Structure formats: structure tokens, C-alpha cells
Amino acid sequence: MAPSDMARLDGQAALVTGASSGIGRASALALAAAGASVAVNYRGKSEEADAVVAQIEADGGRAVAVQADVSKEDEVAAMFAEAETVLGPLEIVISNAGIQKDASIGDMTLDDWNAVVSVNLTGGFLVGREAIRRFRAKGRRPEISRAAGKLVFDSSVHQVIPWAFHVNYAAAKGGLHMLMQSLAQEVSQEGIRVNSVAPGAIATAINAGERDEHKADMLKLIPYGRIGEPDDIGRIVAWLVSDAADYIVGQTIFADGGMTLYPGFRGNG
Ligand code: BGC
User: Fold this and answer.
1) pLDDT tens per residue across span 163-183
2) What are the two backbone dihedrals, phi and then psi, of residue 163, each rounded to the nearest 5 degrees?
3) What is the mean pLDDT of the chain?
4) Cα 87 to ligand 1 centroid, rounded to whole Å
5) Torsion of CA 111, 114, 116, 118, to 10 degrees
6) Is the pTM value of this prediction over 0.85?
7) How confident is the model over 96-114, as pLDDT tens digits?
8) Catalytic site residues?
């Protein structure tokens, strides 16, 4: 196989959570462009998910919108069942859905904490667990993919960079890091690859307010000199689940324009 063929995903079914917008949407489109059929999960905005499905279909691909709140056990099980009924056994699962509810520590409510941990960390557990159960039931199909299944978590630079005024978010992403590595250690001998992508500041709705008000300050944190685009991450996700990346197991790919280089230390410290 030529190296470029190894990046193809033809004949593989994928599920992307939180795929109606932002990085999830870009990941769904990139997977479809590489040949995968895609279940486009959304929680509330069915029109946005339908638009992603329509775009994939217009480009000659196959997709279906599936509703679920990833923090709800029964909804996650129903989402996987629906995706596999329509698309067949899943080879690829991208656990991407995530939220922010920012507050200083004195003002952070238990609801703010629980909401973020439920979606960003418990959601990763529920989606990851169901993905692995389904990969096991499917087994390895070497004519389609070298691995028996590929699971990618959409983490964040804040799995390592502390983040004042966002302790719920940073704690959830830090937990997601150990969830990913511990899961990878548990299931890689079955041929299941578990990895993460850790984006920096990407132009999506989650940080739209910050980008409007503090873009210059954000850019000071990014040595490469630009805010990322959702496609920057979508392309990496599609490659990471392909056979081209078959030997990457239990790793986090940071895609952050150098944010984790701590650029404030250049000439300082
Ligand atoms: C957050 C964004 C933030 C970026 C860099 C992401 O995980 O969701 O709001 O801009 O990290 O700090």
C-alpha cells in the first residue's frame, strides 16, 4: 500500500460526538473526506447536525445524525445502537463533545462543576466504554483496518496547562488524560488503539467571547502566531485513526501552535 492509501478510511464507519459544530464538525468532515461513513452526534441542535450530514452527502459520502447527551448512560447506549444499525459496526469513535462553564473559584457553583465534569470526563468514560464493547463485539477486520478499533479523545492543552478561573474544565481534561492512558494500557493488547488529540486555541464557539475581547492576549500565548482552525484538528484526527498512524498507541498529539512551549519563558524566567 502506498503511504497515501494508508491514510484512507474507506469502508470504515465512524461516530463523532459533539459533531454539529466546531472541532467535532471538522473531524466528521475530515473522516468523511478520507472515505469513512459518519454518525454525527448532537445534543440539542438538530439543524446543525443535519447540515453536517447534508454536506457529507453532497460530497458523495454517507452520514446520519444521532441525538444523545454524552453524560447520560442510556442515551449513549442508544446512540451507538442507532449508529451501528444505520452504518454497520464502528471502527472509529471520536469522543469530542465538551463544554465550558467558567467562573472564579469563589463563584463556581456545584452545578458549574458537575455540568463540565459530566460532559467532558464522564462523557468520555461512557463513550469510551461503549466504543470498546462494540470494538470487541466486532473483532478485527484486517481487510478494512489494521486495528480492531480506534478511539480518540478530544482533550485540550489544559490537560497539562493549569487554568485559573476554569478549574472544572482543567480538572476534567487532566482526568481525561489518565482515562485515555489507562484505557490504552487496558485494551491495546486486543488491537484497540486509544489516543488523544490536545488542541490549543481553536476558532470555535467555545472561545468566541475570548477571541472577540482578548485576541491579542491569546496570540501572545501562541508562538506560531495564529489561532487554530477546526480543520487543523480534523485533519489530525482523521490521520490518527488511519493505518498511517497504526503504531501510535496511548499518546496525546498536541496541536496548539506551540502553546505548550510556555512562550512567556522566552527571554524570561
Ligand atoms: C478551550 C478554549 C481555549 C483553549 C486554549 C481549549 O481547551 O476550550 O476555550 O481557548 O483551550 O486556552
Assistant:
1) 999 999 999 999 999 999 999
2) -140, 95
3) 97
4) 32
5) -140
6) yes
7) 999 999 999 999 999 999 9
8) 169
User: How is the chain split into domains, by residue range?
Assistant: 3-254
The answer, yes or no, to whether residue 2 has pLDDT greater than 90, is: no
State which ligand 1 atom lies nearest to the alpha carbon of 173. 7
Q: What is the DSSP string of the chain?
A: --HHHHT--TT-EEEETTTTSHHHHHHHHHHHHTT-EEEEEESS-HHHHHHHHHHHHHTT--EEEEE--TT-HHHHHHHHHHHHHHH-SEEEEEE---------TTT--HHHHHHHHIIIIIHHHHHHHHHHHHHHHH---TTT-SSSEEEEEE--GGGTS--TT-HHHHHHHHHHHHHHHHHHHHHGGGTEEEEEEEE-SBSSGGGHHHHHHHHHHHHHT-TT-S-B-HHHHHHHHHHHTSGGGTT--S-EEEESTTGGG-GGGTT--
The C-alpha R_g of the chain, in whole angstroms, comes to: 18
Check pocket membership of 156 for ligand 1, CB cut-off 6 A: yes
Q: What is the CATH number of domain 3-254?
A: 3.40.50.720
